[in-house]
Protein 1
Amino acid sequence: MSTTEPDALLGPADIRELAEALGVRPTKQRGQNFVIDGNTVRKIVRTAAVRADDVVVEIGPGLGSLTLALLEAADRVTAVEIDDVLAGALPATIEARMPSRADRFALVHSDAMRVTELPGPPPTALVANLPYNVAVPVLLHMLEHFPTIERTLVMVQAEVADRLAAGPGNKVYGVPSVKANWYADVKRAGAIGRSVFWPAPNVDSGLVALVRRAEPVKTTASRLEVFAVVDAAFAQRRKTLRAALAGWAGSAPAAEAALVAAGVSPQARGESLTVEEFARIAESKPGSKAESKGAGA
């Protein structure tokens, strides 16, 4: 059962005092913008629908603002932090501000892109304020390697949020949109103003909610085969798929044959296709194992 301790969350003065004590200056290189508003981190936890039985993984906890709010609501929290100083300080912050929940917290000092296993029970939720420069690769990496993550809520740059949540036909629909949709149903879940961060970023932020698909995309093609089609289609997004997929298929005529076999117009563009249609194209690649399986079915 979750426990709330008086004044456990970090406020603006606490953040700055802690940062000064640690000699921490937020760096653009790591996209560090610390949340300094307790109402905002609690809003994130509410929007994420964190339950008392959830095992939450958090990426880039920083000084611990969101971490503390997650510990109030979840069964346990595992935080992944790459920064040496921040990783070294976080356990002490948890112990000092929320001692009754300290045994429900674990720290992994690592680059999130290298993490393929976590201590304790498998995570059921991912909640994070993701650095803008690595948000999409980190999100996709975690969804790939931790299939037990059912629900995700990430705070990212508003532009990235729009791309992740975009559907076919939207002008910002692209590689992140399709790949995220391979794993989950994705939607925009709110906006976050600049003033709740220190330092205040030059861009607005948005929340994106992802609920893992109850059933995977039905296809005989592998994830890597489908993603190869997606990458090729959007590498030259203004070209028709017949032209854009020529390199992938071996030639423009081969690409056209694969598209026709998949029931997709060779004159269409990638921005109009669903993830299921990309999967059908992958299945139809000339000489692919998926095509052979389909032919023998």
Protein 2
Amino acid sequence: MDSGTHFVVGLGLAGLATIDPAVSNDPNLFISVLVGTVLGSQAPDTDGLYRFKSNSAYIKNHRGLSHSLPALFIWTFLITGLIFLIFQPTPILHVLLWVFIAVCVHVFSDLFNTYGTQALRPISDKWISWNIIHIFDPIIFFSHVFALILWVFHIGEATLIFPMLYGFLIAYYIWRTALHYFLQKNLYKKDKKYQKDDTYMLIPTIHLSEWNIVKKNKNNVHILGELKRNGNIQWIDEVQCKTHPAIEISKKNSDIASFLYFSSQYACSDIIIHSWGYEVRWFDVRYRHRKQYPFVGVLLMKKDYTPIKSYVGWLNEDKLSKRLGLHEM
């Protein structure tokens, strides 16, 4: 989820915490829980600070260790300890419980979008992304906003509003999961060009009834399409991953290695041969936007394969050319 949604979820969990009589009957404890759920809903994303080191470090580490199994407990104890120091004396076990819930909800909800997390570390460093919920889901965000408005303006009791909200959202997640499973399982039936060994990945969009599709065939060709509201598939692009010695050598570059660490299953390679050398591009086929693939890893190399400049991150074609100084070469 995006940071804004995580924030309103943190507030919503504080409202839900009022079902605990100790929290609802003690204003000081409620404030402690409110601070705890808001911080717990944001804490795993503090790894965004890696941006200040480099894009490469951010892409390799974001939603990694900070979203791992040990991190669930580390964040909980750090935040609870901080709250105890500021708001003592306070019934610390109640705060501990709700902070832990907030951290777990953050990590669990991130599993449902395309970016995913490494939530099973240290057991496995595999990126887990279920492709069920868009990173910004209007249902999740605005249902929280609506519930918070009802609460703030005393239109309803928190002990009624927030159990209903989260009951509704649990049902919503179950429905989206079942819908995604059903649609992806039956995509081949809708695809008039289906061939044996074709594999499909269904990706959510901000529009609840529309999905993006990545189809991969046995020739390592990625075919991009859209599943429309009427249930029809519209194919919109096709990319062939290229091979070249420069592409293989590029994998040793630290920026490209970080990109491939995250996008290994969905990375496709391309190469442009210039008079001065090679421009090797890796792009993630999951993120197509306005006829481009803006999530890229690019390495410029001389003809003897000596690295010149590299970049990894999110840029469109024009900004990428300026960033790498291609127009000056």
Protein 3
Amino acid sequence: MPTLPLYQVDAFTDRLFAGNPAAVVPLGAWLPDATMLAIAAENNLAETAFLVPAGAARWELRWFTPTVEVPLCGHATLASAFVLTQCLGETAGTLTFATRQSGELTVTRDADGWYVMRLPRRHAVGTVDAAGIDALAAALGARPTEAVIFAVPNDTSWLAVFASAAEITALAPDIRALAGLPPRNVIATAPGEPGSGVDFVSRMFAPKAGIDEDPVTGSAHCALAPYWAERLGKTGFLARQVSRRGGTLRCELDGDTVVVAGEAALYLTGEIAVPA
């Protein structure tokens, strides 16, 4: 039976067993969508990234959860860049990824080893009405001070804002109720604790995509950075996603781009068998 290489990387962390694990599968040519979805389901991670070479320092890139293909995934893009540079010998200073719904994404590596991604900014398109806030509060088990609607490809995300980081950590949401809300996903956020050096914290829930809670979500910061830029009056941030595994990100709002940077650690390398 044919085999493919597989790498698993913990993204947005400098140590194993933290951050967000992603699988990366380099390909010579695209597999059938059903096969890639089956591989992602078998991996049972938030995302599996698939790469196909498309020229010098350039690849086509797609991401699958265990149930659907997604239009953007930050942590699996970071993991892909890590695999290319640390495992497969790529030496280019800038890596370019051509995606189907999010355009061209670039990743560079800073002198301190952090991978720097340029991702598309998400724009606010309104606020959640009173009935929506009631439903959101019931699903999250706590009432946000406001909820902002952000546009994502073919859908929306709701950004639920709380007063303190402790409230975000304490959330114990009803995942089935969250899945019944209108948006694709729900991001909960609050200012960082005073004196922590962290500008804001977050958690992200995406049960409609088969992810009850995503450990660390680069794409969520495409909405978080614009929100906090307006609220805090600055464009550069240190962010912390306070899931059980946790992860740290550097973010910067640059016009219609959100620059998201993080570290990564290699967990495993191996081979997977696929049907001929």
